[in-house]
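Researcher: Here's a chain I'd like modeled. Treat it as a single chain, no partners, no ligands.
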Amino acid sequence: MFERILTATDMLDACDAAVVNALEIAKQNKGRLFVLHVLEPTYFNECGPVESIRDFKTGEETVATKEYKEKVKEELDNKCEGALKPYGNYQIDLAYGKPSIEIRRWARKFGANLIVLGPHAGKIEEEKELIGIPIGNTVEDVIMHTTTPVMIVGRFLPKERLNFKKIMVCIDFSRSCKYACEFAAKLAQRYGSKLFLFHMITLHPSGKYTQTELEKEITTAKEKLLEFCRVPEGIDHEYIIREATLPHLEILKYASETDVDLIVMGSHTREKGEKWYVGSAVEMVSAECFCPVAVITHPDALLKMKS
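Model: Modeled as a single isolated chain. C-alpha cells:
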C-alpha cells in the first residue's frame, strides 16, 4: 500500500519521531523510506538563492559546499543508523531551498504515496519559536499543495500502534472529507481495522438550537452520514455524532476515549472561489493529537495507494 514513503527531518542531533514512525510503516509495507533534510538559505539575491546557510554545529553563516553537504548527510546517517541500517531499504537525501517546496518536489520525484512529517516544522532560527499556525507553516504549505497523503506524527509510538486497528474519520461533508473516507476504507481493508465515523454538530455558545431542533439536526446528520460514507461491505464500523462548541476539542476527546490509532481528516474544509484553506480543526487536532493524523488533500491521494 505504501511502497514509497518520504519523511523530512530538520534534526541532526537525533533520529526524530517522524523518521522512526515512518520507518515502521515502511517495514509493514515492505516499502522504501526516503529521508530528506532541507538546507535553508539564510538569504536570497537577485539571481536566485545563494547557498549560504547556518552551520548546524556552530550556528555561524557558512557556504553549503559539496564537502559541507557530505558532512551533514554523514551526520544524519550516523544519528539514524541504529534504526535505519537494520532495515536497509532506505536512502538519505539533502535538498537546498524552501522546505515545503523541496518536500513536495522530492515527493513527486520519488513517486511517494505517503509523506510523514512532524507537526512543528518551520521555526524561527534564532528564537526556535513556532511561527504561523499550530502545525507550522511548512507542514501547512505541504498539505495545501500536495496530492500525496500527509501523515502528521509528533511522538514516538510503539510499533503495534502503527497497525491502525482503530481508525477515526472526521466527517464534515466536504469534498476532501469524501476522499478521506475512501482513504480510511482502503486502510481498513489493508489492516483489518474498525472505522469510527465521527460527525460534530457545532453549537453556538449562546444556544442556537432548541432541544427539538437539535434532535432534528442529529436525525438529519445520521441520514447524511449513511449516504455520504458508503462504507464497503465487510469493514467493521460505527457512526458517532457529538454536539459541542469547539470541534477540535471534541475530536481529541473522543479519540482519547476510544483509544484510536489514527485520525483521518480532509484538509480543505473551507473553500473560497478557487482557493482552498486548511481548516482550523485540522490544524489544532494535528498539533495536539496523541496519535498520528492523516490529512487528505486531493482525490489523487487514492490513486497513489495500491490495493
